[in-house]
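Format notes (please read before filing issues)

Several people have asked whether sequences and structure tokens are stored in separate files. They are not. Every record keeps both together, in the order shown below: the sequence lines, then the token lines. Line labels are part of the format and must not be stripped during preprocessing.
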Amino acid sequence: MDTDHPFYQKLQNSKNILLVKDDVGRAKRCVRDLPTEGFSYGSKLKKDPEGAGSVISSWQVHKPTNEQQTEKDFKKLNKMSLNSKLTTSKQVTEFAKQNDVRVKDRRHIGDGVKGKNQSDDYFGVPNKPSTPIEQVVGNGYGNVAAEEKKRTYEFNLQSKPLKPKNSPRATEKTETLEEKKEFKMKKFQQVESKVKNNLISK
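Then the structure lines:
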């Protein structure tokens, strides 16, 4: 298609995405009126009045819900009316009006002291004490370990005297080893070795 033709120019300026033609190797021209380059798209985030610093530095104490009067415990009232030998519905109704028995609120079961102030309580696992980096880098722990080993070595030297090298037991062992002969059966003890004799003669 001739790009200089007036009809082609009319199509390109029509701002209709279906009629606008694209050039070879290029994207279609934008048919919308877009804002400038510095414009930011998307919805603007609302700033939270409570920042991260205030969240970390403050502790919000739990505020329990207001205690409301619970419903009547009709199961217990029926048992009490049976114990009082009331059998008719009229008698049971009158008994329920006269006796005010309420259902126990299970939310407070297991609580320690009611109304305890939780602002002084700490929750979670305590952090480990920080490692003294100066002692690690400066080989402080290595020096302490070397001193302890030196003390234990000196203590062992003082408490246990060293055995002499040339002890009588050691000499006895060497003598017994020298006296030991190679094993031979009794019937071959008097027989001379032929191999040895042959080697000597040669």
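For reference, the curators noted about this record: Residues 140-159 form the longest helix (20 residues). The helical segments are 6-12, 52-57, 74-83, 89-98, 133-137, 140-159, 168-179, 194-201.
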